[in-house]
User: Fold these one by one.
Assistant:
Number 1:
Amino acid sequence: MTDESNKPDVLVAGAGIVGIASALWAQRRGLTVTIADENAPGSGTSYGNAGAIATYGCVPVNSPSLIREMPKLLTTKSAPLRIDWLYAARNLPWMFAFLRNCTPARVDHITRALAELLSRTDAGLDPLIEAAGAQDLFVANDFIYAWESEKTRNNSETSLAARRRHGVSMTMLTGAEIAELEPGVTMSFHSGVRFEGGRHVRDPQALTTRLFDRFIADGGTYVSANVRSLTPTDDGIKADLSNGEKIDAGKVVIAAGAHSRSIKGSGAEDLPLGVERGYHVMFADHAHRVTRPVAWAEGAFYATPMDGGLRLAGTVELDSLDAPPNPARTEALTTRAHTMFGEEIGQPTSTWLGFRPTMPDSLPVIGPSHRSDRILFAFGHQHLGLTLGSITGRIIADLAEGRVPNFDISAYAAGRFGKIRR
Ligand SMILES: Cc1cc2nc3c(=O)[nH]c(=O)nc-3n(C[C@H](O)[C@H](O)[C@H](O)COP(=O)(O)OP(=O)(O)OC[C@H]3O[C@@H](n4cnc5c(N)ncnc54)[C@H](O)[C@@H]3O)c2cc1C
């Protein structure tokens, strides 16, 4: 192939929020960029999330209390966590590595590393919002995180203290104050916390599409095919695509979310990338029920007012990427929706399953591959990819240009997993 679009400075594998933000940032630094993805831009996990720019989200799912609570979580039918035991048996190294990251010292390290990245959210996101003219998709708002019981409220003291230590601005709320702030919530909560200074996205897919349209309008190239494998050459990386095309790129960014391990020769296949499946249910005519994202802590979901209606998004299911959607999970979310808003909201108008890409330490992998400095990893953003996609893109653009990012990114390096199996 001789055409210039087949010799980009950067090829990005994956058109989710992380890949598109990386492509747009690299393009704005003057690099020629191609994105490859056989699915429509923004149609993966970046489509159906809760829309929260969750800058308060430095506390990982890993926690010492998770181990204590595990038996109850696994035996309660409506619990927000479900594990498929066959999947768990096939992925024991990931499960054990996840549990090893639940000690207080590890949680402290992870919290600090996430807080570092989260504190740069605006520096990654705001220039892209401005470039894409996407201001209208954001609503500046506080978030409410509400507890049903005093016991879970008290169990959250450690994580609240960690957030406070890392500068999260918050106010505690009584149940009555929640009812006053959000009269559309018919359930009585025991108490809650208001995370201040947040914003949410009214339509996450519209955001990725808007960023993608800017990328194309500014001369970016999109190929509707997946990247199958990579081979280093003398001056770059050769990518084999699922449509038979080959692209010689200066650098390749692996931003295929939970699917990143499928790209052979990239080195991602050597890393312990897992998947936390999550669901949403939509109630088309009920966005007015809340004025801001409201989380039910025990249910592990957010109810967010969106352009398409009221979206309840969250929960965790440990099962494989190719297992079919589990109707019991969306039924449980629907039951919670009825408890929270009353049965008159009816049945969901649509349901969705997405795949959070999660490393056992809940930190993303950002930086060069151990296979080649020309392959850059940008995946593993777990519950925070919408929030962290843009700052990740900015770091990736630095690395693609050969610049050193303006803060220490070693906590996100692939090398933290020690001796990597090849
Ligand atoms: C229920 C739920 C609620 C959430 N709520 C929030 C929230 O409120 N705030 C927040 O910050 N985050 C949230 N998240 C997390 C967030 O959605 C994800 O972290 C984020 O979307 C991951 O983005 P991504 O670009 O890495 O992956 P994706 O959006 O999945 O994109 C990956 C892309 O790679 C493509 N691909 C796959 N294989 C290949 C290949 N071989 N070659 C090329 N392309 C390939 C796929 O087609 C896909 O388009 C939530 C997640 C879930 C499931």
Number 2:
Amino acid sequence: MRAVRFHEFGPADVLEVREVPDPTPGPGQVLVRVTAIGVNYGETLIRSGRATEVVPWYDLAPGALGGEVVGVTDDGRRLIGFALGEGYAERAVLPEDATEVPDGVSDHEALALYLQGATAIAAVDAVRPAAGERALVEAAAGGVGSLLVQVAARAGATVVAAARGERKLALARELGAHEVVDYGEPDWSSRVDPVDVVFSSVGGAVGRQSFELLRDGVGRLAVFGFASGEPLDVTAVDAFRKGVAVLGFGNPLTPDTVRRAFTLGLRPVLGEALPLADAARAHQLLEDRATTGKVVLVP
Ligand SMILES: NC(=O)c1ccc[n+]([C@@H]2O[C@H](COP(=O)([O-])OP(=O)(O)OC[C@H]3O[C@@H](n4cnc5c(N)ncnc54)[C@H](OP(=O)(O)O)[C@@H]3O)[C@@H](O)[C@H]2O)c1
């Protein structure tokens, strides 16, 4: 089968198509013919080698990548899940009890809702924005962010969508954001009133500025990513000083979060669908901040 692999950490073009043996499922596993692959931002950090800097507990080596796939079993079941082994490939192994894609949901829609929907839901569960509270969403037009805007708005929060550029802010408004702010502008945070909750996926300076926007004594920040390549630089002493909570969460994919991702009626935002052989271009677009919503590869 064809698979996309990388043999050294580096820029997007280290990704290349290779002919490799089909994987073999073990007990409790099933082989699928992959019909679409979800590209997640974290994979760009893994490929570039930056993941080990940002999340040093990752012990990664160059090789296979990914990933989130939709695939069809020999007996015609359409499953979604994380491939055991590699995911940027024409065949993949999934757990036999992987989630079935609901009828009427396209591959692209399913991939937009699966990991990113579960992550948005887990983040909201972590910090529980109450009706009337102000919630700041970073990267609000991205895969996770575009769903977070919707989940937080449904909880009754006043959603402040932060992203770079007019196109992304317009999308966030369409998805239900009440206020928008372009954090590409250096003084952006001075134009935002204090917030009760922050959904923090960018890290670096943006993460720090968002943290400072938290209302003293009541604020909560859910941290689940570092798209800038720099960790969120906030210490326990900082949290103590402001009287706020910083919460992380582990694997967001649970049967409950996945069920809710598919049944809440969220609008999946569909980004580029590119051929598997264009995996490098998909990574480049994500790193260039040129995408909105979910990017997929089609074998
Ligand atoms: N913990 C988990 O289980 C989990 C699961 C899924 C995703 N995540 C994390 O959640 C975040 C969102 O993931 P996603 O797949 O939905 O990606 P995404 O939001 O679709 O893409 C990343 C976005 O981050 C923003 N960004 C800010 N600074 C950036 C920089 N220096 N370089 C590139 N992008 C930058 C960009 O939006 P703007 O241009 O608007 O800033 C970009 O579009 C990522 O940090 C990812 O690692 C975590």
